Amino acid sequence: MNVTAFLHMEPQRLLMDDMRSSVQSHSLLGVIANGANRLSEIASRLAKNAASLSRPLENLIDLGYIRREIPFGTDPKAAKRSLYKIADPFLLFWYRCVQPYVALLEQDQITAVESLNKERFVRQVAEIWEELARESVPRLKIGNIDWMPAQRFWGNDRDGDQIEIDIVARSVDGEHILIGEAKTGAISVESVLKNLESKAARVCFTENKKLVYACWSAKGKTSRSGTISVFNADRIFDAMR
């Protein structure tokens, strides 16, 4: 956060190197990092027509700065519930925790900015852990099964109520569905399993599938308890190497 630090202005330098128009890209990354994830929300924050943002967003995706998320089981070409997220953890931290407080940092108010960012930083750690959990799925052979890449699911359940599931994946053979949850704090394995079983019963894509449950616990121990596998940070980092 120190304004004299080597990486303090790195995001602007990256955009100037990679984009012909860095100003709009800078604005897009700023609003996405701070909670505008749907195209309509991004357009509203920037007072722009949504159609005019399609190309700039695609450019940022191509450069690996943002990613487009769709719910598990949704056709990418027909997805109207897409969410745009910052793909790079460093850029996410800078646009969420540094850029909004540049004026304070220029006055050397680093401690004050750190205090303001406590909740944001905790949220970012949780988001990155959840993303690492999804990325690790094809490498873990959970339940001795080969898995396709994992996605998040959000949408309506069988009764029309909103539901979110951190980690969902289909087995390579198409016979199994993985239902998982990512946790950064202490967990009760029994409670997590009960919650996952409840969510699995509420969605349609689990019908006629064999279900496998898993929890990614940053502070827990890698283990298997009954019908749920638990993976800790060491196991995930080993798998991602």
Automatic annotation (TrEMBL):
InterPro entries: DUF234, WH_DNA-bd_sf. Residues 94-186 form the DUF234 domain. This is DUF234 domain-containing protein. It comes from Candidatus Raymondbacteria bacterium RIFOXYD12_FULL_49_13. The lineage of its organism: Bacteria, Raymondiibacteriota.
